[in-house]
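Subject — a protein and its fold

Tokens — whole-number codes for backbone shape
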Amino acid sequence: MRLYKFMPRQYAVENILYRRLKISRILTLNDPFEFAAVDLSDALIRDTWLEARRKFSEKFGLVSFCRKWTNPVIWAHYAEDHKGVCLGIDMPDSTVVPVKYVSKRVPRNEVFDELNLPIVYENGNPVWTTKFSHWRYEQEYRWLRNLEGEESEGGLYYMKFGTALKEVILGDRCDFETGHITEALGHSAGGVDVYRARPAFGKFAMTRQLNKRLAR
């Protein structure tokens, strides 16, 4: 499955050079309802869950992707107001799970066992694949990662993607030239499609820049 990762310019070249993506830690994600989409109205359940989430965050992280790269809002929010870069990466279907978007909190009996402990290790469990419906525009897929054994540097953890990189898309306002990206790709440049995005003329979407003068 081809999925897309958006990022500011300052991280793009480094990620391409080292063929890696930063693994996000659960408690640093931009949505305070992450791993807390369950109904936590009960104080005892809430305390149990929040402590379990803290411990879970010490051992696990996730990498988020978008299903498509054409949404201009995604570029604005995650790629530095269209000045950033998007990577198209081929991911095994079995490793990523689509996020489910809901308008109401998940009933706690769907995610807690008889001991009132959250079941978060199962692939696709609603604890880590559920978000508020207003996030639907992201069309997000997630890869939950056990941090043990992952590459780490300066307290950060990274997922290596190697030859799975297939596209590098420069934002409409990105000041990189495609040749700069090709240079960073090195010997693997021939297998990666490098191009620039632009606003479509007939709809609210980004599309490929085909004008050779503007696509540099």
